[in-house]
Write a structure and sequence with these properties.
The protein contains 14 helices and 7 strands. The chain is of the alpha+beta class.
Amino acid sequence: MPTLTLKPDQPFNLDATLSCGQVFRWDRATDGWWCGVVTDRVIKIRQDGDTLTFRGAPASFIRHYFSLDTNLDAVLRSVDCDDFIHASIIKNRGLRLVRQPAWECTASYICATNSNIPTIRRRIAAIAKRYGKPIECEGTTYYSFPEPGIIACGGHNGLTECRLGYRQPYVFGTSCTVTDAGVWEKKVHKLPYEEARKEVTKLHGIGPKAADCILLFAFQKYEAFPVDVWIRRIMQEHYLPDLATGAPLTIREYDTIRRFAREHFGEYCGYAQEYLFAGREG
């Protein structure tokens, strides 16, 4: 079975990376193996110290997907600018932002609005089973995530059995708008962060938080700083005490938080966000 040996200056924590809420199609077995579907691959991977053992993808794919080519030490040094985030970095050191397939990430974060992680996972799995291609692996059938054109051709009612609730017309509408995921992805990749944000929020059902998640996790726009209820609470308690957290989050407040984060944590504030989120408990 193929292995990768991590360099001493290449911190990586597989468990923290896959369990921090950025991805929804990975599962960890009790023996430490993770199994996930990425594009048309079923990948199994585990970490033992500085050794990654894996199957289902070449080493080049593993390096790229898990951002092992990113100088994480330099990134963390750049955002390690106060005692609170320093504690989160120490606790979760080695957490990396994975490079997610852009279309699946986009549809996933439409499904994620106002939902908990188990529900998000169920919705994504239902869409994949309904429209994706079956992938057989060790006696189990997995499903790739369908291209937007396939979902669009299935019609609005084709998504009903996926139980998406009010998100159903958003997933369908965005599928009809994007159509060619490759062309759309290249267009967004070329844009600076703020322009890319405007482009992504044109899609059905994508607000500021979903847009920032998509840009951070799929397009490596590290200036993105997604704000949810947890991040809002952390920012109020440790950075912006004048925030009023008793009312629904407004666009103005969201912008105040993300702009403060960009100034305080710098160009990799998206990494800071993920470490703050991962360190929110304990």
